[in-house]
Amino acid sequence: MNPMNPWNQFTPELVSDLYELTMAASYFREGMSGEATFSLFIRKYPPGRSYFVAAGLEHLVDLVTDFRFQEDSIRFLASTGKFSAGFLHHLRNLRFTGSIRALPEGTIFFADEPLLEVTAPIIESQIIETLAINVLQLETLLASKAARCVHAARGHGLIDFSLRRTHGVDAGLKAARAGYLTGFAGTSNVLAGKVYSIPIFGTMAHSYITSFDHELDAFRAFSRAFPDSTVLLIDTYDTLSGARKAVQVAREMAAQGRRLRGVRLDSGDLAALSLEVRRILDEAGLNEVQILASGSLDEFKIQALLEAGSAIDTFAVGTHLGVSADAPYFDIAYKLVEYRDRPVLKLSSGKRTWVGRKQIYRRCDDQGMMLEDRLCLAHEECAGGEGLLEEVVRGGERVRPAESLETIRARFEREFRRLPEACKDLRSPTLHPVHISRALQDLEEKTARKIRREELGD
Question: Half-sphere exposure of residue 199, counting CA atoms within 13 Å on the CB side?
Answer without folding.
Answer: 11
